[in-house]
């Protein structure tokens, strides 16, 4: 039987897949917080406690957990928007970018957060996706990605700068900062290679 290549995805297909992925992702965050509340906040134990060796196993789970519904709500809209825009460039690449951001952000929290602090939340990923989107256009030199990055930077840039300030003691600026740096690095690590002529 002759092999026929798969039909390439259209822009509409990519948008639908990105939307389904991010709606599912954010829905999972809300479901986990509902379980956490229903079980007397038992999932909070999977946050990251700085410099405790056993807590390294919580670097990834902590990115899906929150301390209350207000905390989830604060991360949901930017995660939906940034995640959707990033996933339009390909689901596999988006997932690879997200893993890098989550791990680097979590390790930054583990290394530099105050002793005894328990940290969880998707904000490290949010800051990382922001950095990725802003840097991607400059790295890949594609007009549409550049415009998206500039718009994202213009709309959310001031909030991001506040979120990485050590003066902001009510949030994990360490996770935000390392997430942002990981996102910028991901734009280089996972950039698309130009096709050879």
Description:
With 197 residues, this protein is an all-alpha fold. The chain has one domain (11-189): Rhomboid-like (Rhomboid-like fold), CATH 1.20.1540. The chain is 63% helix and 2% strand. It has six helices and two strands. The protein has helices spanning 11-38, 69-87, 91-112, 123-140, 143-163, 173-189, and strands at 48-49, 118-119. The protein has a two-stranded antiparallel sheet with strand order 1-2. The model has no long low-confidence stretch (mean pLDDT 93).
CATH superfamily: Rhomboid-like
N- to C-terminal distance: 31 Å
Q: Which fold does the CATH topology refer to?
A: Rhomboid-like fold
Let me know the largest β-sheet. 2 strands, antiparallel
Report the principal-axis shape: globular
The domain count comes to 1
* Helix content class: 55-70%
Low-confidence parts lasting 5 or more residues at pLDDT below 50? none
| Number of DSSP E strands | 2
Order of helices and strands: HEHHEHHH
Give the CATH architecture. Up-down Bundle
Arrangement of strands in the largest sheet:
1-2
- Beta content comes to under 5%
The Rg value, from CA coordinates, equals: 18 Å
């Amino acid at each position: 039987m002759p092999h026929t290549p798969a039909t390439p995805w259209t822009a509409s297909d990519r948008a639908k897949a990105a939307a389904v992925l991010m709606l599912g992702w954010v829905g999972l965050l809300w479901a986990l917080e509902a379980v956490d509340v229903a079980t007397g906040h038992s999932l909070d134990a999977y946050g990251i406690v700085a410099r405790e060796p056993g807590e390294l196993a919580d670097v990834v789970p902590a990115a899906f957990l929150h301390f209350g519904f207000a905390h989830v709500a604060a991360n949901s809209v930017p995660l939906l928007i940034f995640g959707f825009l990033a996933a339009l460039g390909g689901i596999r690449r988006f997932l690879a970018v997200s893993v890098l951001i989550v791990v680097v952000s979590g390790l930054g929290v583990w290394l530099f957060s105050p002793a005894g602090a328990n940290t969880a939340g998707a904000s490290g990923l949010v800051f990382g996706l922001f950095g990725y989107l802003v840097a991607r256009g400059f790295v890949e030199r594609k007009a549409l990605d550049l415009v998206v990055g500039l718009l994202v930077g213009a709309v959310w840039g001031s909030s991001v700068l506040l979120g990485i300030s050590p003066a902001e003691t009510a949030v994990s600026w360490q996770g935000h900062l390392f997430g942002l740096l990981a996102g910028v690095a991901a734009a280089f690590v996972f950039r698309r290679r130009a096709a050879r002529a």
